[in-house]
Amino acid sequence: MKVLIVEDDFDTADFIKRGLEQNGDTAHHVGTAQQGMVLATSEEFDVIIFDRLLPKMDGIDAVRILRGSNVVTPIIMLTALSETADRVSGLDAGADDYLVKPFDFSELYARLKALTRRTPLKQEALSLNIADLRLERTARKVSRGGQALDLNPKEYQILEYLMLNPGQLVTKTMLLEKVWGFNFDPKTSLVQTHVSRLRNKVDKPFDTELIKTIRGCGYIISDHD
C-alpha cells in the first residue's frame, strides 16, 4: 500500500509510519491539512489517514474539500474525540472510516486493508458470493448451497460486512462500529454472541466452515483454510 498520513502529532505519525514500513508498505507524512490536500490531489495513494484536529484547517473541512474535488481515495480519520456526533460529522464529510485515539496499530492496519479492498464496483454489487454462500443485497436474502438462511437484521449486517472484505481480518471493534454504530467496549460480548448465532446458521449445518475466528483479533470469511 501507498499511504498518505496527514497528522500534526509527530509521535503518532512516526508510530503509524514505522508500522506500515515494517509491513512492507510505503508511507508519506505531512503535518498540515493544506500539505495533505496538495499531495492527495497531485499523487496517487491507496489510502489516506487524516487527523481530525489539525492546525489552521480542520481535518473534516479538508476531507470535504477533497471529496468536492473528486478525490475518491479511501480516507480514514483519526481523532481524540469519541462522541458519536463527531464521528458522524467526519463520515458525512466523506471519510470512509473513523478511528478514535489511542488505538493499536493492528486495528488501524486491518481497517486500512479493508478500505483498499473496497472498490466501488464491489460496494455496488447486487450480490456477494463466497463458495456456495450467496448474499443478495437488494432483496436482503442469504442462501447457502441453494438453501435459504433466515438471518435477523444484525446477523445480515455482520455477514454483509464480512463478505465485503473476503479473506481479510475484520476486528470486533470494526463490527461493533459498523453494525451497532458505537465505540468498542472491551467488556461487551455483543459481537461474539451475534457471530456465534450467525455461524450456527451459516456454517454449522454445512461441511465447510467459512467464518473463521482469529483469536484475540476478530474474524475472517474465506473458503480457504
TrEMBL record:
The keyword Phosphoprotein applies. The modification 4-aspartylphosphate is found at D51. GO terms for biological process: regulation of DNA-templated transcription. Keywords: DNA-binding, Phosphoprotein, Transcription, Transcription regulation, Two-component regulatory system. GO terms for molecular function: phosphorelay response regulator activity; transcription cis-regulatory region binding. Residues 125-223 bind DNA. CDD domains: trans_reg_C. The keyword Methyltransferase does not apply. It comes from the Bacteria. Residues 125-223 form the OmpR/PhoB-type domain. One of its GO terms (cellular component) is cytosol. Residues 2-116 form the Response regulatory domain. This is DNA-binding response regulator. It comes from Pseudoalteromonas luteoviolacea.
